[in-house]
Amino acid sequence: MKKLIFFTALSIGLGSRLYAQLNFTFEQWKNATVTERTFTFYNVQANIKDVIWLRNNDKMILELDSVQDYKRLYRLDTVLAQFLQDIAFYKDSLDNNNAGNVRIDYVLDDSKDFKQIRFIKHKPVGDIFVNKNGETSILKMEQDTVNIIMHIKTKEFIGLPCVVNVMLVLNNYTDVDKIIADKDVLQHAFDTLASVRSAKEISNPFKYPSSCVYKPYSKDKFPYFFKYAGLIDNESTIFAHSRSGIQMNASLGAGLVRNTFAPMFDVGIQYNSKWRRSAEFYAFFRLSATPYYFFDRESDGSFSVKDNWFINASIGSWRYEGMPMFGKEITLGLGYLVAEKGGYFKNATMKVFTDVVITNNIAVCPEFIFTDNLSQIFPGITLKVL
């Protein structure tokens, strides 16, 4: 009989919401305990992350190294059946949790002839009851988490074993039986998720990570399905991480040119390219046009508008919240004056600028302007509303 190693931990917390907080970064991994390294899936180990919505708001979260790892999920029903058999001895202890919830980590390692199991039991925050037709009973609010971690012996990434991670977020851990019964639906889901990957995502998943959110049980005519570039945090923040490819953008603001404030707007086209495998950081290249509007009083007392147009080329980087970098976005660029009115600039004129996005909607843009065939230089600053 295979050796079974069993770890138990008891804590009071916020229920299954902890499942997302147990995924560590590589920096945390370096300082982690042996237990944490055994039972924690680290974000740097995944190039693919999918969310499959099951019945009754249950869900399955897949984190894989490559498209080839979907093949390992074809035997998931067998793994789950063995999982239920291995934890059967502890069922009374798990069920005696007074409406709390439990996280179960189940580790399979190609290089070992035993499994490792950890239970983390969370007590509910207060006693919660439901009264129906005069009958009062304890109410369970939080979902259970079953985390299946499969270590792959033949592959390794920066000292970490590559893994297939399957996280089940269920109303009750015993609902694993229902997943086993629906193995044909899940088989089709795995095939679908593998088939939608592009050639570059298959050949170089580290450079081109991807994610999907899939509802195979959707009652719509077609199943709910979305695919995204980069690794999503969860199924509810997907739109914050779909910044790849080409996009149009524009902004309004005012710039201080010499001693004059001039309204301006900026419109451009931008190409985004992730150069980090998560969606936390990407680089971009942008071409844009920026007119500044000056207002002069004519000899008859009327006002005229003098518009001066710059064509700009810029490169920059964007970072997700929490990245150790000032500003959400930083840009460096060059602009060339292509249309001049009013004598504010003379002859060949260029500018060097940087855009620092300090909030979601505000950017501060200091610049140096070189005019009169680049023989004169003066500073300027523009405030933009994005």
**Proportion of beta-strand residues:** over 45%
User: Which strand order do you get reading across the main beta sheet?
Assistant: 1-5-4-8-9-3-2-10-11
Secondary structure: number of strands? 19
Q: Overall pLDDT, averaged?
A: 78
Give a description of the structure.
It contains seven helices and 19 strands. The radius of gyration is 28 Å and the shape is elongated. 13% of the residues lie in helices and 48% in strands. The protein folds into two domains: 238 residues, no CATH class; 141 residues, Beta Barrel (Porin), CATH 2.40.160. β8 and β9 form a beta hairpin.
Keywords:
386 residues; mainly beta; Porin; 9-stranded mixed sheet; 8-stranded antiparallel β-barrel; 13% helix; elongated; disordered N terminus
Sequence-ordered SSE layout with sheet pairings:
Elements: E1 4-12, H1 26-30, H2 34-39, E2 48-53, E3 59-64, H3 76-87, H4 91-95, E4 101-109, E5 115-123, E6 129-132, E7 135-138, E8 144-157, E9 160-170, H5 176-181, H6 183-195, H7 199-203, E10 210-215, E11 224-229, E12 245-257, E13 260-273, E14 281-297, E15 303-319, E16 329-339, E17 350-357, E18 362-371, E19 376-385
Parallel strand pairs: 1-5, 2-10, 4-8
Antiparallel strand pairs: 2-3, 3-9, 4-5, 6-7, 8-9, 10-11, 12-13, 12-19, 13-14, 14-15, 15-16, 16-17, 17-18, 18-19
